[in-house]
Amino acid sequence: MEDTSSFAIRMEGITKRFPGVVANNSIDFAVRQGEIHALLGENGAGKTTLMKILAGLYQPDEGQIWIDGRAASVHSPRDAIDLGIGMIHQHFMLVESHTVAENIILGLDVPRFVLNLEKVEREIAKLADQYHLLVDPGARIWQLSVGEQQRIEILKALYRGARILVMDEPTAVLTPQEAKQLFNTLRSMVAEGHTVVFISHKLGEVMSVADRITVLRRGEVEATVQASETSRQDLARMMVGREVLFRVGKRESEPGDVVLEIDGLGALNDKGLEALRDVSLTVRHGEILGVAGVAGNGQRELAEAIVGLRPVTRGQIRVDGEGVTNRTPREVMDRGVAYIPADRIGSGLVVNLSVAENLILKCYRDPPICNWFFLDGDAISGHAQELVRAYDVMTPGIETRTRLLSGGNLQKLILAREISSKPALMVSVYPTRGLDVGATEAVRRLLLEQRDAGGGILLISEDLDELLSMSDRIAVLYEGRIMGIVESQEARVEALGLMMAGTAPEEDGGE
Amino acid sequence: MADFSFLVIIVLSAGIAAGTPILYAALGEIFTERSGILNLGVEGMMLIGALAGIVASLATDSVWIGALAAMAAGGLLSLIHAFISITLRGDQVVSGLALTIFGAGLSAFLGFPYVNVPAPKFATLPVPLLERIPIIGPIFFQHDVTVYVAFMLLPAAWFWINRTRPGLHLRAVGENPAAADALGVNVVLTRYTYTVVGGALCGLGGAALSLAYTPGWIENMTTGWGWIAVGLVIFAAWNPWRAAFGAYLFGAISRVVFDVQMLPTAGLPQIMKILLSPEFLRMMPYAAVIVILIFASREAVRQRVGAPAALGQPYTREEAEA
Ligand SMILES: Nc1ncnc2c1ncn2[C@@H]1O[C@H](COP(=O)(O)OP(=O)(O)O)[C@@H](O)[C@H]1O
Ligand SMILES: [Mg+2]
For the segment B251-297, what is each residue's pLDDT rounded down to a tens digit? Predict the structure, then answer.
């Protein structure tokens, strides 16, 4: 056994229960001084919970923590900060309307009373320089890109002298290039004597940046391994609990006529700023057009503009040749457009209604569900039973409140409702986000079947692997503009990454 | 011409006197809302404060103790709201409305023996030297102490919120309690503190009415001024200076309306009679303030100052993840 004092973090027997789930089940986790330790696991494996316990945000039901070899009681974020632990959350903990400097000094005991922001800004600039983290200390958070916001989170931890840095899925919001830059920063921090815990569910980046890897599955530790002594396949098996196919089997596509035609589209975001600028693209029947981009570059606005949920300020949208620009969602839907929203619970379903009721949300006006004015109960349950069976939705019954279903089954429910309406076009936004591997495979298979049946699909995703394996062509959105559209067979991750960061592709395109 | 400037001085000076109780309440509500707690009980807290001020100053013969009692009463009442919204995480709108109804009812009940009883009041106390400055002097410096304290409280409140460490914590808690919590700021304590401070200032606003502007106790004597304060806070975009502008403006228009009411209407056409009727005129200050502040708030929207992002939302750590 190793000398325990060489561990920066040691957590033993950590158990944390939430209503209905054991998020962490008797977890042992140890991180050595000065290493980059990856915490790997699927969504819901319990990674965030474990680290929030370390950061004093959650109290464990059982278990003990040692920091730098000494038993530590972490009852509040304050305690964690005093122990030198800095956590960078997946959803950044920044006050949007405040400046960078104000965010960085928030919660500190100095200055005592009157704020001297100029002095703080100078200190921040110096620290930023030391770690090559370019920021403008006087800027307000809402003016900054996610990449910049992440740098501020790192500076926030460093400014309060954190020696142990915990990063929760830091690359989810970054382009591949920005991620590389982040890894360099992490390496230089480790070289300066810091210790880094890096949470991820992406195998590739874990292999490339971590010294050691701990794999969590369903709230339990599967294994802790040396990065140099493992492989992607091994990690995937530990993470999922079975062999994993990395590519979905896909037939050659047979694109037909154009189903969606967008021409010079413009739209505003919720803040009233331009979110889409002169977007033009087409989707054919029997084709999947992927839309890549870092989150927040106009993806949501594009989907909402197409389905009629967001006013279009400029340009035209046509579905099967008919104009649907600025029509109501109902009219767009009647033209054969289906929508798989990113927000399943908020916009995709009415979670307080039953499974059967959710399944008729699109067809409740027409026979056989509705006769004149009255809903036909038998027709509704027949309809629901058929779809639940055909789409393999795991539910105790069709009268079950929808909110009791798991994320994967919620998504299958939406897909069942939308695909059964036989849409000409499906706009699907982050359809596999947050789903486990099994549900992800099921959703992808359903989308491919829909394509093979002649439907056109606009697939918006953050996951480049998903886009490369599913799409026939890929468009890249950057700051509301289409940076380029490439055939996915010819697409390379590096090139897509450059476009996601705002660099237009070389005109000659030659290899 | 001399007559006209005389008129302007009277109106503005009266506006400042009348606006002062509203200003206290608005400043209190700004502190409370900046911490993320919406307290619609302002009217109730002002009424309780107004009555407590009268009762305590009658008992002790000191208006100062009366003012302190008013703050204590307002603070105590807001503590109920704090407990319901912060600890029990109840609905803040419902709790605030209940507070207003409760405060109005309780003050009417307890205040019955005090109706129209002569009580001590803050005397007019011109500020030496300053009062003699032409125009400025009569407008600003020939009032009672409650007006001057408000003058001093105003820049202090702005400075506290925008330029101090506790003020930074206050703003952060109202904008993003999860972020503040993760950095060791005590969200619960901060919200309790500023809810009670806000309540105390509302109580003081009530005392500025009953011990200074319209001395003595009458049932429901705030006549909706607490609600004007609540509205001002929104249209003032949570900024003390704008709130002061709105409060004084409301006061000035009230004064003009009061004077116009005195004009003889005999022989005027029917439409003028309606326009000059007391019922119509009494509506005017409320309508005018709303219209003017709507225009003012459009400027604020352009500069992206909005409601504290977490206003009205309860916070608990373990449920922070959506
Ligand atoms: N605050 C919470 N309240 C209730 N359940 C939670 C909470 N946080 C996490 N969970 C549940 O605990 C499990 C683990 O979640 P989490 O730690 O976020 O996983 P990961 O970060 O690995 O994706 C999930 O089933 C999740 O739904
Ligand atoms: Mg997580």
Answer: 998 888 877 877 777 788 888 888 888 888 888 888 887 787 777 76
Residue A81 to residue B184, Cβ atoms within 8 A: yes
**For residues B32 and B202, is the Cβ–Cβ distance under 8 A?**
no
Predicted confidence (pLDDT) at residue A75 exceeds the cutoff of 90: yes
- In tens, the pLDDT along A288-328 reads 999 998 878 899 999 999 999 999 999 999 999 999 999 99
- Rounded distance between C-alpha atoms, residue A228 and residue B158, angstroms: 58
A46 lines ligand 1 (CB under 6 A): yes
At B96, which helix (H) or strand (E)?
helix B92-111
Q: What residues contact A71, with CB distance under 8 A and at least 6 apart?
A: A64, A65
pLDDT in tens, A147-181: 889 999 999 999 999 999 999 989 877 877 888 88
- Say which DSSP state A347 is in: I
Of A463, A496, A477, nearest in space to A204 by CA: A463
Domains within chain A, CATH numbers bracketed: 4-240 (3.40.50.300), 248-336+423-511 (3.40.50.300), 348-422 (no CATH)
Ligand nearest to the CA of A47: 1
Nearest to B184 among A78, A97, A112 (CB): A78
What pLDDT is attached to residue B307?
85
Cβ(A154) – ligand 1 distance below 6 Å: no
pLDDT of residue B302: 58
d(CA A495, ligand 2 centre) in Å: 29
Residue A91: partners with Cβ closer than 8 Å, 6 or more residues away: none
Domain boundaries, chain B: 16-321
Inter-residue contact B65 to B245 (CB < 8 Å): no
Q: Which of A265, A357, A264, A364 is nearest to A312 (CA)?
A: A265
* Element holding B158 (H helix, E strand): helix B145-163
Q: Give the residue, B1 or B38, on which the prediction is more confident.
A: B38
What ranges make up the beta strands (E) of A336-494? 337-340, 370-371, 374-375, 425-429, 456-460, 473-478, 481-487
Spell out which chain B residues touch chain A, with contact meaning CB-CB distance below 8 angstroms: 163-169, 171-172, 175-176, 178-185, 304-306, 309, 317-318, 320-321
Confidence of residue A495 (pLDDT cuts 50, 70, 90): confident
% of chain A residues with pLDDT over 70: 96
Between the alpha carbon of residue A232 and those of residues A171, A228, A295, B75, the distances in Å are 18, 11, 26, 62
The dihedral region occupied by A56, where left means phi > 0, alpha psi between -120 and 50, and beta the remainder, is left
What DSSP state is assigned to residue A454? T
Query: What topology does CATH give the domain B16-321?
Result: ABC transporter involved in vitamin B12 uptake, BtuC (1.10.3470)
- CA–chain centroid gap for B72, Å, is 16
* Residue A338 predicted with pLDDT over 80: yes
The Cα–Cα gap between B20 and B208 comes to 7
C-beta of residue A445 within 8 angstroms of C-beta of residue A247: no
pTM of the predicted protein model: 0.79
Task: Answer for the pair B36, B178: CB distance below 8 angstroms, yes or no.
Answer: no
Q: What is the dihedral of CA A140, A200, A462, A156, to 10 degrees?
A: 0
CA B92, CA B96: separation in Å to the nearest integer? 6
- DSSP, collapsed to helix, strand or coil, labels residue B183 as coil
Radius of gyration over every alpha carbon of chain B, rounded to an integer in angstroms: 20
Question: Cβ separation of B166 and A55 shorter than 8 Å?
Answer: no
